[in-house]
Amino acid sequence: MAPILLNISANWRENTGRCLSFCALAWLTAVGVACGSSAAPAATPISTIAATPAHTAVPAPTSGIAPLPSPSPVLKTISAPTLTPVSTPTLTPEQTAAQDRKNLAEAKARAGEPMSGIDLSGLDLSGARLAKGQFFRADFTGANLTGATLVKANLTGTKFTSTNLTEASLADAELAQAIFRNTNLTKANLTGAILARTNWDTSICSVNNPVVQRCTVIDLLQAGVSLQLSKARIGPADLTNRDLSGEDFSEAFMFRAVLSRANLTGANLSKADLRQAKLDGAKLEQVQR
User: Residue 13: CB partners within 8 Å, gap ≥ 6?
Assistant: First the structure.
């Protein structure tokens, strides 16, 4: 009886297990149909898995901004500037000859060559460098010597008729017996120049003294001509009754000068050569000696 019961029990358990397995399979099938799922995906073969690389390159994330295209170089064409040819002024034969004479005078002055009696009339010698030139009895009539340098030049007996000597430097020049007629001496520098027996145009000197008989450097000064008297060689000039107050005669050569009754108040006479000068009645208050 016992063996029979054991067999029935085993059969029951086997049948019950089969029933349960069938029911579970039926339930899973019903659920898959209801959800619209398809059959379970086929398993990936082991060989396929083995062939797949272990690490797959992941593309770098992008910011969503498209990269800017590389700028292409822009070549600018620079045109060469147009050069305007400098035209050389054409000189007339007369102008060429005048320029040659000016160049010759400057060259001879530099070399110290004598130019006695040379005719430089009517020339434009403005700014000319004629220092130490030997112009004995030369003719500068109508010449333009504005700003010219005639320092230490020998101008004895030279004619300066209607000559423009504005701002010219004649310092230490020899001007004995030189002739100045209708000459422009505005701001001329005659410091240390030898002015003995120099012939000055009385029309220049008669502005403040209409009865002047012989024009001196003092007359020029009082007529408004700008001159420097320091170290000037005034010589035996007649300066009787002249107003020379405040003038600078320092180191001036005034040998035998006549200064009778002249007003020298505040004048600078330091180191001036006043040998044999006449000073009777002269006003000498505050004179520098």
Answer: none
